[in-house]
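idk why but the lab printer keeps eating my pages so im just putting this in chat instead. protein + benzoic acid:
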Amino acid sequence: MPTHHHDVIVVGGGAIGLAAAVAAARRGLGVLVLEQFALLHERGSSSGAERQWRLQYSQEDLARLTVAALPMWAELEEAAGRRLVHRTGSLWFGDTTTATNEGQVTAAVDVLDRVGLPYEWLSARQIEDRYRFAGLPSSYEGFIQPDGGMVDVRATLWVLHEQARALGVEFRDHTRVHELEPDDDGVTVHTGHDRHRAGHVVVTAGAFTGPLLEPLGVRFDVELYEMTTTYFRALDPGFDYPTWFAFQPPTEDDTNLFYGFGRLPWAAGDLVRVSPDFEVGEFHDAYEAGYTANPVHLSRTAEYVAAHLPSLDPTPVRPGSCLIALPKDPDRQFYFGRPPGAERVVVHGAGWAFKYVPLLGRACVDLVVDGRTEHDLSRFAF
Ligand code: BEZ
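predcted complex ->
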């Protein structure tokens, strides 16, 4: 079996894998990206059209990390010749004491104060009047942060892919990695047909990461979910929503969290996404994902829209799902680093990390080349 040599192999061609490939090629390294499905597929964590962009976090280091990512997004926008981060505002509201995987309203406001970022505090009535919500419990409160908004996922993937190609990165799609075999000089990467050898491997395989790390004795302690996504038709051409997240106490059956967007600024049309953030139906093998909406979660979302969003037609359009790996420890957000005993392997995995795409791609390569990153990501280590 022939062995192909590269400086760096990136396992997983999603957004962070592509960003890492670009960063490595920029540092003069020969890079191969191995992608198990078609390039730019919709079966992983980089699927879909939009992601929320927000500066507020319950943890100060994450808020600061998002601010640090901004100039890198600006650079990417320059290369793309178009906007990727659209500042349509980010509205967080609800039961301010409910703690979730996404954070908590009052803790996030404390962090906004500490970091010196602007926001406006709002009562339930103000949220209803200004942002056309209805039927909110009068105890609900929240804030609008004007710099939040949404990220154009597909344009981000396209520009990173273009940059990688232009820098000479090689790609092999439909090539699944079965085993990583690190030694003192590098890593042997076993695929179905081939054996590749690299000085370093960057694993950015999202929900598919666990089985690659287990044989190395590395615990990737995540929960896998397929979360329902769907769109609703906006009824009033003169009104648009900011991105929003509703914090509510859990029900007996689900986490009772919903979030939404306004119209996509980069696309014509009246469809806006509203989806449930239900950590329900954990499964253990990412290859078993069915990529279909959960009918109960879909009707819960339609009920939420009918009750609280009178400017939307409550009939779901284009239901689907997205595959997500969330760290079991909700404070952690994601895994990043060189697993102990496998120092030639750098991993980013799990969490809601699209905001950090250019930053984490670069940080993976900084670890490979310099052995350190300029950001302190040590609490996300293995
Ligand atoms: C986030 O901004 O992290 C987020 C937004 C919507 C759903 C889940 C996470």
